[in-house]
Request: fold
Amino acid sequence: MKESKFVKVTLIILVVLLTVDISTKVLFNPSEATAAGKIQYKVVSLGSINSPSEYEELLNSMADQGWTFDHVLEIVTLVAFRK
Reply:
């Protein structure tokens, strides 16, 4: 009986936490679909990057300018940032 009560309470807590998590994402993180006109992209060539420290410098430099790393275009060795 105690195990059944524990399972029920645990499930209720999980549902509440998931509801709060989903609600905060919906309310406080604007959707990219609604803000599509506001997103900017910048593509940078990695041709001159030869070490992890140089890549780190690039990431930090772009972050200082307000850009967020988005993804690497592996086929042509380019990096995409957005803000």
Q: What stands out?
A: The helical segments are 2-28, 52-64. The mean pLDDT is 76. The longest strand covers residues 68-73.
